[in-house]
Amino acid sequence: MTMLETMVPVSGGTFLMGSDRFYPEEAPVRRVSVGPFLMDATPVTNRAFARFVTSTGYVTFAERPADPDLYPGVPPEALQPASAVFTAPQSAREPDDAYQWWTYVDGADWRHPEGPQSSLAGREDHPVVHVAYEDALAFARWAGKSLPTEAEWEFAARGGLDGADYAWGDEFSPNGVHMANTWQGRFPWENLAEDGFERTSPVGSFPANGYGLYDMTGNVWEWTEDWFGPHQPAAKACCTIDNPRGGSLADSIDQSMLYLGKPRKVLKGGSHLCAPNYCHRYRPAARLAQTIDTTTSHVGFRCVLRPSVIVPFNG
Prior knowledge:
paralog of FGE (formylglycine-generating enzyme); disordered C terminus
């Protein structure tokens, strides 16, 4: 069995979850415990996702026309199969409007990461992208696994380095070595690709963390099964929160017109588009709210397998 097909045992334990030093949604730091589980050593790859699709005939969210009942007022032409693709502006821009670099491309999907003219040739071992939450969940159930909770994911990403800023320690590039696939240069227009990659990279291209897990930060954001909501501190400083399951469905719903009241799940890990001048989120504590119907060229997932004594997620 190759690294790309293995699961790594994570013994579980108690750790300090969150951060008070970066973005407000990561606070407060609180003591959390998680039980034991197995986690995929890498994000799910295009090769693995293709086996799932071949076995089941599954069609991803981005490959289907959108249901007009779920998107009232949206023109029919905007409901055709499509997905969001990163396209760097051609000139210097301030990163103040995501529409500068996200383009909704007809025909972009997991098989065609940049649109119909692109393919997976040479990218079989890159993380699968353009997967909505329901796609990740469908794969996990087919594989007899689950998506991780946010707490499980963060515990695993830390690799035993409790309280460290990064999955490898407190220094972003120790001795000048890039430890993850992130953005170098001034986002969104200047990509120096000093780490060797402009977009996604083959999984395992960077060192594993202390638990033997690869790409826990950078490369692609990863879905978790938790609804997004504000973190709740422990009732007392002395207390530990056991196996937290995240926010509520009601808390997760974004009421803005942009998202049409869609519920949101927690993404973890940052991606190859995270840069210090815009998105310092290539850290275990970082978290992002994302609507469950989101498909983009920088979001993927990995799975976990919990012991039978832990009640499996079923919703």
